Sequence to fold (188 residues):
Amino acid sequence: MDRLFKNAVELSHKIIASTVGEGDIAVDATAGNGWDTVFLAELVSDRGKVYAFDIQEQALKNTEQKLKERNLSHRVRLIKDGHENMKNYISEEVKAVMFNLGYLPGYDRTCITRPSTTIKALGSALSLLKKGGLITIVVYTGHEGGMEESDSVMKFISQLHQSEWDVAVIDFPNRKNFSPYLAAIQKR
Fold:
């Protein structure tokens, strides 16, 4: 049995997979350990492109290793910079942008995404998005700074005008230990 609501990350993949396909351009705004980057690279095929951002060298190394193992490196441009600077690297419209907020699992828990840069990155992502394109945001609240970032994200997405954007939030209220939730935005 396929569990539709297993967790926020898998649900974000299902939503993105419904829209992104061969030849599309996509962004992993938080490369982390590389799983979203690999996922996007597989979706866009050899005709597409993925931009993957992270400020940590270790995150980019982890991502690069996963891409090499799967022969996907040629589909991805790894960028050591904050996601708030994505417009410095991307000039074309994109079909999807994935955010997985928080910290790099297994590494420095004090190096986290922050409200100010995340909100700037979300603004950039909105401006790069094609009509019908998607943004997914997996939001973690259980670490120091997580609730503040969550509050900022919710305030930002709540103010998007309904004539231009469809916004949904899927939470897991019966889960313990600060289960992450998913916010999704689609350009009309």
Observations:
- Helices lie at 8-17, 35-44, 57-69, 115-128, 146-158.
- The chain has a mean pLDDT of 95.
- The radius of gyration is 15 Å.
- The first helix runs from residue 8 to 17.
